[in-house]
Design brief:
six-stranded mixed beta sheet, 8 helices, alpha/beta, two-stranded antiparallel sheet, Aminopeptidase
Length: 243
């Protein structure tokens, strides 16, 4: 193992151990991770619900790697690992999908748009939520790599969360990645239409052969999930501290 790889492994291990230690007191973590503003009459806080969105699914496979790997499969694999961590922390989680399915009606002539609308509708049905969408990137030029986070411009906390995820991923698993979190435009439907805090995480480039190998690796998927969760806790607890 090269020195740089060893240092990267040490950083990730430290991060993982810190998170594991925090999860020992799951009830304490869950009680702190809440959104502030609930019913003013009772002066209480509303427990946080996280919606984890595994992008694409069903007839919509998303991007396809040169080896035939489909984005929808990688999205779901990472999303399920992220769900397991949130669940262990005692944080309520809703998955937009758990299987290889589309959320749009099979008979609809606008199935893709219906699918996206259904994901946005979920954000409006469950009170105070934070929406995290998992995707993979692809570009015609193979040299590009690295995680990229986009955030909704409809809620200020979206940017805070996106920047935290972008920073944690560079710190612990992608030291080469100098990308910055970006505001989403109308081309990212779910972020453009969600009114709650919402981010979309492009975990890496399927068009980069080395990165695709990582994205298909279960241990690397776990690293991505742990970093997203750690960044989430950092962003939410700082938000509550500064209220």
């Amino acid at each position: 193992m090269k020195k740089t790889e060893f240092l990267q492994w040490v950083k990730f291990t430290i991060c993982f151990l810190l998170i594991s230690a925090a999860l020992v007191g799951t009830s304490s973590v869950a009680s702190r991770v809440v959104l502030t503003s609930a019913t003013s009459a009772e002066n209480t806080v509303e427990p946080l619900t996280v919606i984890i969105d595994a992008g694409h699914g069903g007839i919509d496979g998303g991007a396809v790697g040169d080896d035939g790997t489909m984005e929808k499969e990688l999205n779901l694999a990472v999303a399920k690992k992220l769900e397991a961590i949130f669940d262990a922390a005692g944080i309520n989680v809703i998955m937009t999908r758990r299987d290889d399915v589309s959320l749009g009606e099979s008979t609809s002539s606008h199935r893709k748009l219906d699918d996206l609308k259904a994901r946005v509708t979920l954000t409006k049905q469950h009170g105070k939520v934070i929406f995290i969408s998992i995707h993979m990137n692809k570009f015609p030029v193979e040299k590009y790599s690295g995680l990229q986070v986009y955030y909704s411009k409809n809620d200020g906390f979206s940017k805070v969360l996106a920047e935290s995820i972008q920073s944690y991923s560079a710190e612990y698993i992608q030291p080469y990645n100098s990308r910055k979190a970006k505001a989403a435009g109308s081309e990212i439907y779910v972020l453009d239409n969600a009114l709650c805090p919402a981010v979309l995480v492009e975990c890496g480039f399927m068009s980069n052969r080395a990165e695709l190998d990582n994205l298909k690796n279960e241990n690397y998927q776990k690293q991505l999930a742990v970093c997203i969760f750690a960044a989430f806790i950092n962003a939410v607890e700082n938000k509550n501290t500064n209220v």
